[in-house]
Amino acid sequence: MASASCSSAREEGGEEALLPDASFEASNPLEDAGADGSLPDAAPFDGGLLPVECESPSCAVALVTAQDESFCALLRDGTVACWGANKDGQLGRGEAPDDSATPARVVGLSDIVALDHTCAVDKTGAAWCWGTGPYLQGDAGITTERTPVKLDIPPAKKVSANARTACAVVESGVLCWGSNASGQVAADGPFTLAPLHPPRAIAFGPGAPIRDVAVNEVSFIVREDGTSESWGANILLARASSLSPDPIPLPTTLGPITAVDLVADRACVAAGGAAYCWGTEDGPTPRLVRTPEPIVQIATTRTVRESFYPYDVLRSARWCAAAASGAVFCVGENGSGQAGDGTKTPAFRPVAVVGLPTPAAQVRTTHDTTCVLLTSGEIYCFGNNYHGQLGNGVMRKSSIVPVKVSLP
Fold first, then answer.
1. Contact status, residue 102 vs residue 391, Cβ threshold 8 Å
2. Do 49 and 374 touch, CB atoms closer than 8 A?
3. Which residues have C-beta within 8 Å of that of residue 263, sequence separation ≥ 6?
4. What is the pTM of this model?
5. What pLDDT does residue 170 have?
6. How many Cα atoms occupy the beta-carbon half-sphere of 262 within 13 Å?
7. Phi and psi at residue 17, in whole multiples of 5°?
8. Domain boundary assignment for the chain
9. Dihedral over alpha carbons 102, 135, 114, 296 (to 10 degrees)
10. N or C: which end of the chain has fewer CB within 10 A?
């Protein structure tokens, strides 16, 4: 799952790198769901994420965004490497405060089998988190941890967290804790930032085993059969509700879902080879995102308002998607080359990423940078590099073409 990225990055050209694309509506082209909330019919599709096949201990098998403009990768040897911004300790390197363009392993992690943002689960089920979040460290509430801390929860299969709320898939079901400001921990109230809730079991109706959980201003579960349930902020529920927020987990009409991405005020899923997005810019109803070919995973960003005195500039969300064929397509801002087509021209329609040497397995996005995990286990990034997001050992120098990440 993806984290929100409220970028402070500036490319070498200063303001000019942001202003031309600032008002771009990245959610086009979209198609509304039907009047009854049903989704448009799609051709049958049973594809999934392309497998990563590599032998080197340092090749990557999974890729995530961390907090702010940073990325982390799960390596084949069971360790985690991160690079980019480090304002909140999201690189997991201890007291070193600096951003870094050189990927390095997170301190103290081994035998990791699942990774989501800055939380990981090892082969024993122990859950570890770093950066800023509700990491259950005594009565401290939300803390910033520059090295991983162990969460006091039962053995987990997956943990998803943002800076205020977290959920985990455990043997008994799903636990959620932290802020309930938007009903994300499925408590009846109060819907406020504080107090923070301790871990609580979430009640669901009957269904297939739970495969995945994602949390931001809304919480989602995805079952093994691709069906889903949601609760939290009304505009992100992907289902009709008279409650705002709605703390009651109920099924959505999406499915079968292969991947979901939640980032603050926006959500996208890949389901049945198609992409759907919704949220502040698009409205609460999932809308079909037209792509050149069937897709298996989609990554998005949130809307950001930035001040350029005397004006406020709204930076619209953008998205990139991994296709079943291994191609990658992007739509949205491109002032730093983050759409990957070798230009800085806004991508008003999906453009194909050029220059990737092998097919793509996953794609991840921040506002200014895109990274792609290839089926070879290599990672390539493109776009802004103010914080070292390209991971090639060079700070500040951005790229409109994919460059290889120097994994440790």
1. yes
2. no
3. 2, 3, 4, 5, 216, 300, 301, 302, 317
4. 0.87
5. 98
6. 27
7. -70, -20
8. 14-404
9. -90
10. C
Closest alpha carbon to 155 in 117, 129, 178, 123? 123
Are 91 and 118 within 8 A, CB to CB? no
- Confidence band for 96, pLDDT divided at 50, 70 and 90: confident
CA–CA gap between residue 271 and residue 379 (Å, rounded) = 25
Nearest to 81 by CA among 396, 375, 371, 281: 371
What is the reported pLDDT for 44? Answer: 59
d(CA 94, CA 87): 12
Taking the mean position of all CA atoms in its chain, how far away is CA 358?
23
| Total number of residues shown for the chain | 408
Q: What percent of the chain has pLDDT over 70?
A: 86
- Residue 305 reports pLDDT greater than 80: no
Q: Which two tokens stand for residue 138?
A: 């005594």
Give the C-alpha distances (Å, rounded to integers) separating 33 from 36, 44, 237, 255: 8, 18, 14, 14
Token pair 């080359």 in the structure block, residue: 337
Is 280 in contact with 234 (CB distance < 8 Å)?
Answer: no
What span, in angstroms and rounded, lies between the C-alpha atoms of 102 and 141?
31
